[in-house]
Amino acid sequence: MRAEQPVQQEALHRTGVLAEERCGHEPRVPGHGAFRVLITMLRGGTASRGARSAVRRALAGAGVTADEISDTEVIVAELAANSEKHSRGPYELRIHCLSGIPMWCEMVDGGHELGEIPGILARLQVDAEAGLEPFAENGRGLLLAHMLSNGRCYAYPTTMSAGGAPGKAVAFALPAAPCEGGG
């Protein structure tokens, strides 16, 4: 299930990405500066596949390069797999768009506790590898999300879109489309 919801202006601070960081794209959503969230409800057992598909569609439509789309697919697949393995549903992928440009992505699950996630992400800010092995069988999702989002990966409590139950989000900055004129 996909949905699009307008979001109040106060929500902009959560993205960690400033509009000025994106190249001068024309708005693709009606209304100057319109902030929208594309929500994809993900099914248990196929959350990784659904998350990859949703993020691929959003970024391809915004002109993001194939390599960056592939990197982003790796992030959402890892985070969705983590959600399924370590938490409970429901599962949502939220893509935050400003003026039609995807800027921020959240993998949300029905887990109430952030557990060790903020500590791991904080250690990664200080030490890019923090004792985590990128090719390990387990424990690489947060490392890959941190590395592929250039350190812009965070975890925080949130509310599920459907039903309003408490949940948690692991979120990261999305890549931008190349700037016109090489800037």
TrEMBL record:
The keyword Nucleotide-binding applies. It comes from the Bacteria. One of its GO terms (molecular function) is ATP binding. Gene3D superfamilies: Histidine kinase-like ATPase, C-terminal domain. Keywords: ATP-binding, Nucleotide-binding. This is ATP-binding protein. It comes from Sphaerisporangium corydalis.
